[in-house]
Design brief:
About 0% of the residues lie in helices and about 30% in strands. A hairpin with a 5-residue loop joins strand 5 and strand 6.
């Protein structure tokens, strides 16, 4: 991982420690967070940090294979795992 000076990594490159999400879909491969599903899903799936952040600049690299996705920020999650807040759209359909 290339962490710029002054930035704090949110991901350790090894496992999903510090993150919340369904491990049926989310995993770590080759130092990357990976989302996978072979089934058509009825709703969006989210992975979020246990810790809350403020006053930040976020930087990341994304590899997307033909699907619509996004990165939520300054968002909240309810007890059912639904996310509300800002989203940077990524992929088809943006």
């Amino acid at each position: 991982m290339n962490i710029k000076p002054g930035f704090t990594p949110l991901f350790n490159g090894k496992d999903l420690s510090g993150w919340v999400g369904d491990t049926k879909y989310w995993s770590v491969e080759d130092e990357c967070i990976v989302a996978r599903s072979v089934d058509r899903l009825d709703r969006n799936l989210f992975l979020w940090t246990e810790k809350e952040y403020s006053n930040f600049v976020m930087s990341c690299e994304v590899k997307l294979l033909g699907f619509n996705s996004g990165i939520q920020f300054r968002s909240t999650v309810d007890a059912n795992g639904f996310m509300a807040g800002y989203q940077a759209d990524i992929g088809n359909g943006c």
